[in-house]
Amino acid sequence: MSFPKDFLWGGATAANQYEGGYLEGGKGINTSDTLTNGSHTVSRRVTWKNPETGETGSVPMFFMGQSEHFLPEGAIPAIIEGEYYPSHIATDFYHHYKEDIALIGEMGFKAFRLSMNWARIFPNGDDEFPNEEGLKFYDDVFDECKKYGIEPLVTLSHYETPIGLTIKYGGWKDRRCIDFFERYATTVIKRYAGKVKYYLTFNEINIMSMMPYMAGGLIDFSNQAKAQGAHNQFVASAKVVKFCHENYPDIKIGQMLAYGPVYTYTCDPADQILALERSQETLWYADVQTGGHYPEYKLKDYERKGIHLDDCPEDYELLEKYSADFLSFSCYGSSTVTTHKDIAGNGEGNFIMGVKNPYVKTNAWGWATDPACLRLACNTLYYRYNKPIWIVENGIGWNDELEADHTVHDDYRIDYLRQNIQSMDDAINKDGVNLMGYTMWGCIDLVSAGTGEMRKRYGFVYVDRDDEGKGTLNRYKKDSFYWYKKVIATQGEDLD
Ligand code: BGP
């Protein structure tokens, strides 16, 4: 085992699941603030109101409706009294950042991925001037990181868009969002120059296809709107890269992709074709943002669907010239697909997981915990673009038990991480992949994005908070805390 000396070991979080501080310090409302909690079997909901009639209601977040309209006619996403919204307090990084950064500092983190809450900086999204109190909060956070020699990795938009942009412009399907995002991104890049070296523009940009409200603040779920939303985000991203290349050449801007290898359930050629098509549904996003151009297979798909982008020739020049500096991705496991539904039965887990693979284990939420996926993912993504890659999310959700003496014995997590780190080691040392770092997801317990639960925990640190929003918010070290500390201290050599 030997990881490069400058390998960025660490952990990852996102404001909408971790930060809390809802409406504090001049923060505006984000789309993610309108999400209720849910569970493994009951979908989270987005709440809405109709400003004309005063009517209120909600729709499942995993909207797979027949109609292209996510909300009823005339409705806008809104906060409704009496509903529970886990993001509003989450695990309260807003008031615990010093304690949390001290904990990750104690583990020896080299990098800490966090997202900035866009509406904390531009409360309505289209404001002319930023909110100074919001900027100040992140100044304090980054100063704290510096004390422990931790490099922040900042996601500019992690599943959140200021709600004003959704209500006024329909979210990212409107090209004006490119300018609003550019203003936001350049404001923070200038402000934190010298403090922040690594940014990701959009978390899991490819989730636009499946959950466009989360990924792009869209309430129009038509294929046309999703395609335009993605295009506008690509252009916005390229503009941020251009800004940095011209003004701050040391700052690196990465793409962030949700990626998992796709396996075939049988050796039927029809299954291989299905796996190819499933992979293309993800990879085209990286072909554009990291590779620099739309692949022909995607243009053909748009042609077949009658999609016409609102674009201009300069867009394509920008995409080509200012593609992402590196490619980061989340990878939790693999998915398995087949055309033979009768033999494979139905998949567990969520909608992107496909059918159950008898060769890999799953956790209580049905997620396949397949360590080989990291080596496969690293090879596919590195050799497709030849740019540095970074695993910015990986981990295992578990309903951890806090013992009476405040310990948590999460040997299942240690076991999962051990195998995944071995897989990364193979990618680096056997395959020659240029892997910049590894930030395990949810290093301090936080709210699950998919289910809104607290019980689906990922962290090295347990946070006392439950699914009803009760608990002291006290932090307790799990067994994996001490294990990961040792892993970092030995550069991945001691995984026992
Ligand atoms: C990714 C998201 C994260 C995170 C993670 C785990 O898709 O980028 O925000 O939440 O998945 O998913 P979950 O929270 O649903 O277990």
Which keywords apply here?
about 35% helix; 15 helices; globular; alpha/beta; TIM Barrel; 8-stranded parallel barrel; about 500 residues; binds 6-O-phosphono-beta-D-galactopyranose
Secondary structure layout plus pairing:
Layout: E1 8-12, H1 15-18, E2 45-49, E3 56-60, E4 76-77, H2 93-107, E5 111-115, H3 118-121, H4 132-147, E6 151-157, H5 163-169, H6 176-191, E7 198-202, H7 212-216, H8 223-247, E8 252-258, E9 262-264, H9 269-289, H10 296-305, H11 313-321, E10 326-330, E11 335-337, H12 341-344, H13 372-385, E12 389-393, H14 411-429, E13 435-441, E14 461-463, E15 475-477, H15 479-489
Parallel strand pairs: 1-5, 1-13, 5-6, 6-7, 7-8, 8-10, 9-11, 10-12, 12-13
Antiparallel strand pairs: 2-3, 2-4, 14-15
Helix pairs in contact: 2-4, 6-8, 8-11, 13-14
The structure holds 6-O-phosphono-beta-D-galactopyranose.
Gyration radius over CA: 21 Å
CATH superfamily: Glycosidases
Q: The biggest beta sheet, please?
A: 8 strands, parallel, barrel
Main structural class: alpha/beta
What is the fold named in CATH at topology level? TIM Barrel
CATH architecture: Alpha-Beta Barrel
* Strand line-up across the major sheet: 1-5-6-7-8-10-12-13
Helical content stands at 25-40%
**CATH class (first level) name:** Alpha Beta
The tally of helices reads 15
Q: Report the principal-axis shape.
A: globular
Which series of helices and strands comes N to C?
A: EHEEEHEHHEHHEHHEEHHHEEHHEHEEEH
| Termini gap | 12 Å
Q: Could you give the count of β-strands? A: 15
Q: Provide the residue-averaged pLDDT.
A: 95
Number of domains: 1
